[in-house]
Design brief:
Layout: E1 3-8, H1 15-25, E2 30-36, H2 47-65, E3 68-74, H3 78-85, E4 89-94, H4 97-113, E5 118-123, H5 133-141, H6 152-162
Parallel strand pairs: 1-2, 1-4, 2-3, 4-5
Length: about 160
């Protein structure tokens, strides 16, 4: 069974994330969506809210693709999380060259820790390359329309946070 781990903070999950999940799903039998518990980032949505949003979106994608999807919160090293969930592959989405530089360093460190886990990069669809959770939150906070960047359910959650 091919198992991949797609990690992120997902604060909130965007259409860019969903695009990567959909495309990764066709490559594996099980896709684990790892929700990072990163206290240093000070997320807008707490862990339970992020997990619930991702589970709702993953259920739809799983039904469409036939790929099993599991949402798994984690607070340890990414490579340790990959071991916990039995993943042989880590999936990372790239939007721009700047993403690649950071990800390239991470791959090197992860391979030094365990070279049996491969990292696969998926380029974001051209229509989603500008989407970043940080910018989506900023647009929502300032009263802008985030319809083009998130699902209706996530939009509602953002509106509830920012009133």
């Amino acid at each position: 069974m091919r198992i991949a781990l797609y990690p992120g903070t997902f604060d909130p999950i965007t259409l860019g994330h969903i695009d990567i999940i959909r495309r990764a799903a066709v490559l594996v039998d099980r896709l684990v969506i790892g929700v990072a518990i990163n206290r240093d980032k000070g997320p807008l949505f707490d862990l339970e809210e992020r997990v619930a949003m991702i589970e709702a979106e993953a259920a739809k994608l799983s039904a469409q693709t036939g790929t099993e999807m599991v949402v798994h919160p984690f607070e340890n090293l990414l490579i340790h999380c990959a071991h916990e969930v039995g993943a042989q592959i880590i999936v990372r989405g790239l939007r721009a060259v700047a993403d690649f530089e950071y990800e390239f360093q991470m791959v090197g460190m992860n391979r030094a820790l365990d070279n049996s886990v491969e990292t696969v990069f998926l380029m974001a669809d051209a229509g989603h390359q500008a989407i970043a959770s940080k910018l989506v939150k900023e647009i929502a906070r300032l009263g802008g329309d985030v319809t083009k960047f998130v699902t209706p359910a996530v939009r509602q959650a953002l509106l509830a946070k920012f009133g």
